[in-house]
Amino acid sequence: MKFFRPWILFVFISLCRTAYASPQQAPPDPNPSPPPSATAAPAGAMTVYVSDFDLDVVHRESPPKPATRTSPPSRTRSASRSPSGVPRTTPSVPASGSATQTPDSSGTSTEDSPADQANALVNAVSENIIRALTQAGYNARRLPSSAVLPEQGVRIRGVFAEADEQNRARRLLVGGEPVGPNLILYVGVNSLARPEQPLYALADPPAPDPRHGPVITVTSYAPAERFEVSRDPGEEELKKVAAKIAADFTALVNASRLFLTQ
């Protein structure tokens, strides 16, 4: 019996070598899976909430309205340009039974108030980002500033800013005194399942200036990007920025999915 033991050991070692052969010797997969796309949402993508970006608004008293007179209804429609650059068409005929306001021959301005301009800018940016995320395959939803934060999902948030004379970032003050031709968009991402970390903080000291919003400092607690757009961005410009945000968000999800989903 002792004579056969070395042969038994040799057979056992040979079987082990065959069972634990190097993976390089395995036959190639005839149907390899394609690498994940850098722009499309991964399978089982989470819900993405888009918060309205922060800004400040100058509150002024409404200017006196020009004299009105009753005139026959008109079917014409007048187009005006919003701060986002998206043309909007508004009917020149009010509801039935009300007076029609006619243009003032003295040249009285009928442009939107700073609050209207701010709402148009915020709406345009939020809607373009949601559209880009939806096209990428995400379940994107808008989250107004007054809404309660959900407990699950991922949030994209941001702030409108501009650089002052000392090249400091200030939160945009719509209706204030513009400094340069461009606006700055700081965009951040955070997981709603984790404790909230601020995207930016007010400078200390705040350096108040009635012409501009407060000085801000972007923090390093959450992933953030910086975009520069014209002061009156057009629709195509906002589409490009939103597409870049969606693509970069997908790259972030693919790189740190565990961080974003827990």
Protein described:
The strands form 4 sheets. Strands 1, 5, 6, 7, 9 and 12 form a 6-stranded mixed sheet that branches. The protein has a two-stranded parallel ribbon with strand order 2-8. The radius of gyration is 29 Å and the shape is globular. Residues 1-26, 74-79 and 81-109 have low confidence and may be disordered. The chain is built from 4 helices and 12 strands, in the order αββββαββββββββαα. Helix 2 (114-135) packs across helix 3. By secondary structure, the protein is of the alpha/beta class.
List keywords for this structure.
262 residues, alpha/beta, 6-stranded mixed β-sheet, two-stranded parallel ribbon
Number of E strands = 12
What class would the helix/strand composition place it in? Answer: alpha/beta
Provide the low-confidence segments as ranges.
1-26, 74-79, 81-109
- Summed up, the helix count is 4
Strand fraction equals 15-25%
Helix content percent band: 10-25%
- Termini distance? 61 Å
Rg, Å, rounded: 29 Å
The quaternary state of the protein chains shown equals single chain
**What is the average per-residue confidence, as pLDDT, rounded to a whole number?**
74
Overall shape: it is globular
Sketch the major β-sheet. Answer: 6 strands, mixed
One letter per element, helices H and strands E, the order comes to HEEEEHEEEEEEEEHH
